[in-house]
Amino acid sequence: MSKNQILEEILNEVDKHPEIMSRRDALKFMSVSPVAASVMAGTTVGAASAVAADVKGKIVIVGGGLAGMSTAARLNNSISNADITVIEPDPTSVSYQPGQTLVGAGIWDKEDIIYNRDDFLPSGVKLIKGSVTAFDPDNNSVTVDGSKEVKYDQMIIATGVMLNYAQIKGLEGEITSSGTDNSAVKNSGIGKDGLHSIYFRDGAEATYKGIEELIAKAKAHKGPEKLQAVFTHPNTPIKCGGAPKKIMYLTNSRLEEAGVRDKVELTFYPNGGGMFGIKDYHTAIVEQFKTRGFKWHYKHNLIEVDTATKTAVFDKHWKEKGAYDEDLEEYTMVTKHERVEVKYDFMHITPPMKAPDVVGNSAVGSAKGWVPVNKETLQHVKYPNVWSLGDVAAVPMGKTGGSARKQYKVVVDNMIAAMQGKSLTAKYDGYTVCPLITSIGTVMLAEFNWASKPAGSGKNAASFPLDPTQERWIWWLLKVYALKPMTIHGMLSGRA
């Protein structure tokens, strides 16, 4: 896709929201902004390589979401006469999941983020519309829907994660973000009576209705006690680690817009001991929370929800000194627990997440469920013809679409090198990007890698030459207008 085509896709997004910006103003912004120029440079995609690799072998990709389908497209562009099969049951697997936050805040409609899998299947790539039900890496095969055996020479695992709402007592369901069967989750109460979650599409749509209900309740509220809006972050790795805070910021914006912010208390309950794993971003977020009057309580993990009484139960945990070890000359640290009950009028749940059981319980999985790979080459630690990327890969950080954009190029380059009998030279450096929405109109663009520092100068330079810890309107435009076209029309073509 050409630069002009990408620009037109961005302008099409602008046309959907004239209340925010006109096409004319957007063109002006794109022409004068160095940030926009950088976006366009990053989105411009050229023609396929004139000299495609001449390698032979059957490649099977398990998972046809953003990571899997982008990898299929790039392999198809890079190998002459490629033999590629994608196995994916969900007809809307390539839908734009980062947009669910904006759906939850009423910025986008649900239909704005739904894309059909079959429209993005690369020409010549085969598609099996089913689910892998067993892995047999010792015999280079997988089983589809319990009966069909599919052989491979190289396999890529990009299944994504499962949203494990059932891990919370009182709730049910284990679903994917884009899957259509979420009845168990909704039947257990999520999506109504103040209990919400943006992590699946229907849930995101219901979240905005929940925010509107909270606003209406606040307008009618006369008592001295404030209404309680609660936001959680679980004790497992999650996709898009900033989303639990994004929806909190956006709820705050809607309450301010309606003139009822003073009637609602917003409180964040993360399982961890900080706002962000990178110190500079943690410090910036704490200051943002203070400015907005948010409350927070670290080391609280949601373990139970009573929907009838609208009560959330948290496991508050901390460490204390235990017995003294004379040999080591140190105290044993003992984890303590306290059950904490919190009433809510509105609560957003970020569910615990896990690898699909068919992955985690198989030979390609690990004790923690994720696919164990070399964190730089993304090659399986045990099976050299198995690779993994995206949310299911066991790498530090990296569960974002921005990470997948870096990872799929590494997988393609290294797989082709392996098929040619060459050394694996492509390296993933842990790059992760989180456009942390801080209000309707501002974003803090958090970019970092395994150095655990904001992207800086030289090799680790940020995409944009601005302080990444500051909230900026210009990054809101990037988030709302540019990133979806970059993803859908850039990554899924295998060229961005």
From TrEMBL:
Question: Pfam families annotated for this entry?
Answer: Pyr_redox_2 (PF07992)
Ranges for the FAD/NAD(P)-binding domain?
58-176
Domain of life, per UniProt, equals Bacteria
**One GO molecular function term?**
sulfide:quinone oxidoreductase activity
The Gene Ontology biological process annotation of the record reads: sulfide oxidation, using sulfide:quinone oxidoreductase
Q: State the Gene3D superfamilies in the record.
A: FAD/NAD(P)-binding domain
User: InterPro entries, alphabetically?
Assistant: FAD/NAD-bd_sf, FAD/NAD-binding_dom, Sulphide_quinone_reductase, TAT_signal
The chain's coiled-coil residues are: none
Entry's PANTHER family?
Answer: SULFIDE:QUINONE OXIDOREDUCTASE (PTHR10632), SULFIDE:QUINONE OXIDOREDUCTASE, MITOCHONDRIAL (PTHR10632:SF2)
Name of the protein in question? NAD(P)/FAD-dependent oxidoreductase
What organism is recorded for this protein? Answer: Sulfurimonas lithotrophica
